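Archive entry. Fields below.
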Amino acid sequence: MQKLMLGTALGLGVMAGGAYAEGTTACLITKTDTNPFFVKMKEGASAKAAEMGITLNTYAGKIDGDVETQVAAVESCIAAGAKGILITPSDSRALAPVVGKAREAGALVIALDTPFEPADVADATFATDNFLAGELIGKWAAAKMGDTSTAKIALLDLNASEISVDYLRDNGFLQGFGVDIKDPKDIGDEDDPRIVGNDVTNGNEEGGRTAMENLLQKDSGVNVVYTINEPAAAGAYEALKAVGLESQALIVSVDGGCPGVQNVKEGVIGATSMQFPLLMASKGIEAISAFAADGTKPQNTEGLDFFNTGVELVTDQPIEGIPSITSEEALQKCWG
Amino acid sequence: MTDTSQPPRKGQDFEQVLDKSDTRVASFETRAKSPVERLQHLLHGNPTLVPVIVLLVSIAAFGVIAGGKFFSAFNLTLIMQQVSIIGILAAAQTLIILTAGIDLSVAAIMVLMAVIAGNLAVYSGVPSGIALLIAFAGGAGAGLMNGFLVTKIKLPPFISTLGTWSIFYALNLWLSGAQSIRSQDIDANAPLLKLFGETIAIGSARLTYGSLLMVLIFLVLWYMLNKTAWGRHVYAVGDDKDAAELAGIRTDRTLLSVYALSGLICAIAAWASIGRVGSISPQAFYDGNLQSITAVVIGGISLFGGRGSILGALFGALIVGVFQSGLRLAGVDVLWQVFAIGWLIILAVAIDQWIRKVSA
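PREDICTED_STRUCTURE:
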């Protein structure tokens, strides 16, 4: 309530500048406020909101998958009369009803990072093209190897629930590498003999190490390692190093967090696809501002059912024909 | 004068039939014990026997199912490495559970202490040894805080540690900024932190210092629990706190020492975890508390306190590791591994209940 009143006061203050900005309130609801990815997203949104004179209320779930807290947050935003809600849904389906209520109440709802299922539950989705992110590192790894017939691929995924980010990156990588992916929404249904196996990492170092050890047990000749994110990649590297095989395998990853980019620089990770959480959030705030002014809604990127906030390949071993930036340049743009 | 020739006195008429009656003082009906009952007795007397049997049978079974890749010295020692951190946490957890408590904060204490040691040694230039000592003190202090809440404020252990779990987790995220400390930075600034990642190779077996540390911690605690007065007090407090108090045991002091020791072991686990994982990850081991309880329960230690051997928790942790490794190498999907561990827990507690019903 205090925030709301402060927002009104600020709104009155800038009335001379533009009457539409008066009392415009926006919400940002992230999965957690611990993951550096969401921390960066919040920073981006807060900075942009301050610049545009929008009052921003932020909410976050306690852990990834905490649907109840997010539902309550959306309800608070409706009650606060927010003009727009930016949300990274913890569950692509479970939040649909409450998001519907928010839209009925006149709010613009934009999904950030994680799309709803179906995507048109929200007015728009601002996200990384995770399939493309996977495809880029897949192409890079294939080109780096040259002859891919001797490849032995280890796939380190997220967890047993196979959420969209997980299968999009995994299948994108395999497609880029030149593997027949069968069902693009299923992980592990491929029958290419070059695949050693899949295992889950929970996206952290400990899980990455254990998963890599398990797959090395299946086949110690693993020479290409796909990882869901850079912490998992760091764990995989430790497992390879422990048995002296770190130079035998190419590790590729997705994210673009600063420690991950640093690991590209030091040769731990061969290449990673960088995403831009800050941009997702600031574009989101701009869209809410435009919607509050004259009701225009953001458009999707052509050919996709979301607005692509971009992805860039980061590697210090560039390959002709695959655009990339160096780790030095990436350190300027990385998040977290 | 006594007439000795008098015949021995007979009972009155109605008593005379007693001569023919059974002259034994007392007796119990006996019958041959069935093999099942004998097994029940044997298991009751040797609580670690169940997990040892399950461990050996599962190793043999997966040796057949998953073949030589599973049943190799390399893989079996790898399983030891993989369970070493949860194993050490299970040792700390056992101490609490033996006192009829439960500790939901073990993994949170561990991760917090790893982050503290890492921040001090890697970023603030504190010598590694001192950083570790600070972490040990912090671990013991965190345990004492749990113990204080349980003994002085009289909160149930479940509630105390449910609260401190969140508190320690939040402090961890605050101190670390939810950001991992990279392996390469630890190597450069504080290699001592990774001591327990060092490996001893014997043939194809790869024993890490961390695996050995786990076994050592269990042996030391086994000695303390079984051969010292303190250890017997722990069992007595767990079995019946009021009776222990009446027997002259200072129960609160015993409980405080148990919680402090458990916290210290979590801090030692923190050191070992840095060696195991390579980096210091504030997000890892989020459900380590539940995994440690799983190991303790599968190890045949009673959640009602006062019963079970700490070595059971070691076997419990190894059983979980063997199942995970075996099922993975057999190509079983992850969700079925979770499924199998769930049944193991239920089976273990069901067996425990059955053993407790042992009849004379």
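CURATOR_NOTE: Residues 47 and 203 of chain A are 28 Å apart (CA to CA).
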